[in-house]
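step: validate -> pass
step: tokenize input -> pass
step: predict -> running
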Amino acid sequence: MFEFGKDLRRLFVQARESDDLGWLELIGVDLLAREARTLTTDGGRVSCSQPSQTWRRASILWREHARRSGHPESIARALTTAEDALKAAKSDDDRARALLAGAQALIVKFDLYGDRDAVTQAAELAREVNAKRLPTLASCAGVHARIRARQARISEKLSDRQDAAALMDAALHALTKHNPLEADDLRLDSAALALEGGIIQRDARLLDQAGRDLTALVEASSPDTRPMTRARALALCGAGLAALAAMAGDEAAMQTGHAMFDAAADQFFMDHSPLDWVAIQIARSIDATAPIEPIRQSVALTTGQGTILGALALDLLVAREIETAAAQGDLTDLTRIETRVRRRLAEREGAPSALDWAVDQIAMARLMIARADLMGSDAGQAAFVLAEAAEAARDHGVPMLADRAKALMMGLPVRA
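step: predict -> pass
step: emit ->
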């Protein structure tokens, strides 16, 4: 895909002096971290002529590293280098762009780990921006739109989703002219919001609209120069098609959706962007017959990071293991799974995050339900456990996990 050596060194030299960051898609997470460290060091040198711009670029690289690796320390560095860029700013535009870098890092922090406070803080930073140059104004509009999209997901109100979609459409017009890379990110966000709305509302029109937008993005993203954008668009295409197929009961369309997941995974190696690989495996798991080994690998890649994707992967793995044991009537295996969950609870250092706690509670509820089904006993306590887990996940800004808990509750028998 990309050759090391002279071309790579020249690319890095050019990148340090440019805001065109499309080249980031061509390198793996290890090289990305190395270059981010170099820029962080360069920004602090006395000889650095433009420390604010250098630290801002370092923040962007750390942000992308966090987005692809899930490492909490990377998002922390993205935030600190954005703060350094703000302190070193000598012009209004430098200050505006540093504030936007901080806001974008907080958006990624929310996407990775949940926590409503990150969205609130991002909105506060974005409101401080006083931009005058058109490119910076366009970036500011894009950041405001992305924040609004996350606020809409948290509120779960249809009107908020519609407002966010309109704001993203308006921001796209400006970004397409002034910052095509940010425009592509916003297109992915817009399509994801439309997909979620289509699935929640069972609205085939929204799903079809998102599919058309994503198809255009796939066609415009070369696998040789924009593999990550292309993979993310293909994965969302697959999710949308699978959702439409599920609504229509169309097995052929479902298989086409799975083929899109395969095509997305073929755009890069697992170690090029571990979290993107994990996201594709989770999306593939909509098919109950999908192999379990990729989910095991996903859990191994995300253990200890506290990411939403890691939580979803762990919940999927536990669910599949419990289903297998229950189908075989194996109470011993259920006990073995429960022991593993309790050990995880006992070995965790410090208080668990809301996300970790919710996943563990859902696991315990799944075990209660499976054991009750096998023994013909009552699983009423599971409803309480699931209600608490759903509330914790929703309060933390992770409605997807809350919906999983709610779906389990809906499947419980009504007590007389």
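step: describe -> Residues 92-113 form the longest helix (22 residues).
step: cleanup -> pass
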